[in-house]
């Protein structure tokens, strides 16, 4: 039954008996949940046990893993999944007998279930005199569903019947029509009109539902119907259990129990006497079915109830008529109707078509719930099968069965997960099992007697209590461990809304609350967080040290997801929390707020604000505070990492930590709404402008950029306006901020530096390269362009063999002069040597074709790094003897020194000390690159390495080569990662 299937979709944790006799906890990972048929779950005894605190699952190749011998996976056809490796091979006769047995067992379980479902659909007292005939209509519909699934489904063992997911909606339609007739006519209406109208309404709803499911599957929109929130579905499934309990109590007591207020009717002694045995029997079956795991459990329980009932009649000397008179068994119909007479209920002359439009909201809810439930059933079968299924095809199968069932005057249905898995575990890949169920159900319909006239009401009441306990305990109790607290609360709110208001409003309330919960969760999620990044510009040691000391003055916030009116508040809070200003500025901000003034800053390249100018010259004799404490009357946050001004280096430290540039990275942003632009980003620009902080945007999507530009948050496309700066990538934004910081400290960035003339002074050219190389002691002594001629006096005492003279330079090194746009090498080309940048700048990038070939989401070419004066290009590839992975291109007029591999090898032999300087340059360049990347480095003690160089120089050379290769790999791998 699929009420059990609903449980099987989210199996509860229960205890099982191990072979050793001890009790172990069985989680959903161990087995699928037990179904009402009592079938054995898929065996997992081949899997290694998983520890409760083991967060990293063991690999399939772990030596302690035990080979699986009872489950076959990764196969081509469904049929092969049904045959275990150790299962006996059946003869044709044995196979036929097994198919027949499974067909009969399925029928024995399904027929009582369909009778219970009929009593749920037609639970109103007006339908009780016709219950025998209505049960046969439900069985006809169940047979139609079964033959459709047997013929159309991709699963030969599929079982499809009238399903619980749509029952409540059909019952709601019946109750709605009955209620409307009572309100408009009182008791002045005929049951012929009621039967014709309700049966026709449900048949049309079922047929239209089937057509809608077929269209959904044809358009491959199965994933669309799965957007219904799981807590809402859980509340609905719990309500099915509650509904089944009320229907069972109504059937056993012959009282109308449809609302919580009707429960007072159970206070009568006769009602308690008739209902308590069914409640107790259902609870016992639920406990037994959860305790023992065998295919015979459910049939034995059903047979036990019948044997017990008739045994009590025999012991007490009561007849079946006496039991009917006491209310234990339903009265037989005075004159049993044939199937053709039953279909006479569909009298078109009696149908009141005015009631059809009232059921449209109920039908819409039924469509989503049935489609969602069917998708869950398919997913559950898919899990048990171990092979992916086409959800859209299976949804079309459900649609076809509902369409034909509706055209035949039937009711909604879908996969019956429990019986489908029951047949699967029987290792039967024959469609004859479903055909047998179809034939037996039709035979029962054509039989001249009524089943419910000979089976006690306690029997059906116990089945409905079984459905009630299973669904209500699963979703109202066990779900607390499977859902977040707020989601668990939504389950209860949805359930209570359905119980105390109505079904349709309960679903709407649940969806609305789930929507607000999603908004709250989305806002609470860290959609914005600070990142510490630097540009990919390779700078010299002096610039690196300066920028490292002032790294806190550039704040970068990485935004994620969709920025809307709700998340904009969190963005503003994060901005205030990460910006550092002086307490003097805090007081001025409070003053300007009180006076209503708001000095808006236009952060342009050519016109820095007086606030920025003042911040650069501030003596910083006060403290720093974050902006979230600027407008309150509390003390500053006391940024723990910020030094106090009273220290020895306090002013300099505060000067370096004070925020000057604020970058918002939109790389992971999917979109922005207009409310967020006005209430968040425009307000952020004004807030930062008051404190002389430049707001910068990076990697803004096209639609978001248009909104930001329309609202004057960012500059116009031609660079005009008062908006903030916007850059294509975060790397470019960081590069601009770093250059501005260097300029503010009186240092012209090397990427913008060049000699006054580009003459061919050979002496200065080679002297420049000598200055760029590390000294023998590992130090650098690079001079500015206007003082190159004055550096000779400082080199008098150096080793002459380590000095790069003009003669040695021309012997080993080739000087190149590249204009903007010239290519040094291309990706895929052979590595011939490495390049030293004398002045200018060179971009190393991954070409568009290679970058976009990495997979979806990679667009355009990607800049790996920008190399300026003193930097090296191609060192990693040269060390690893690989082809170039990237392309290098000059971005300005550049003076470049090229050292080929062959010349470097000659230098190592003829001038080893000079070669050591080149090797040291490569080592330092790659070491800095690795340190500034997330790659790992092996550490060797400096003192031990120095001792090794003296005592074991050959061994030390091997370590040095290993370091070079390791760092070369680290640099290459870090370059391949995204920013």
TrEMBL record:
Residues 1-10 have a biased composition (Low complexity). Gene3D superfamilies: Jelly Rolls, STAS domain. GO terms for cellular component: membrane. InterPro entries: cNMP-bd_dom, cNMP-bd_dom_sf, Membrane-Transporter-like, RmlC-like_jellyroll, SLC26A/SulP_dom, STAS_dom, STAS_dom_sf. Residues 553-737 form the STAS domain. It is found in: Membrane. It is a multi-pass membrane protein. The keyword Membrane applies. The keyword Membrane applies. SUPFAM superfamilies: cAMP-binding domain-like, SpoIIaa-like. Keywords: Membrane, Transmembrane, Transmembrane helix. The chain crosses the membrane at residues 99-122, 194-215, 227-245, 266-288, 294-315, 432-452, 458-477, 489-520. It comes from the Eukaryota. Residues 817-925 form the Cyclic nucleotide-binding domain. Residues 1-21, 34-58, 779-799 are annotated as: Disordered. This is Sulfate Permease.
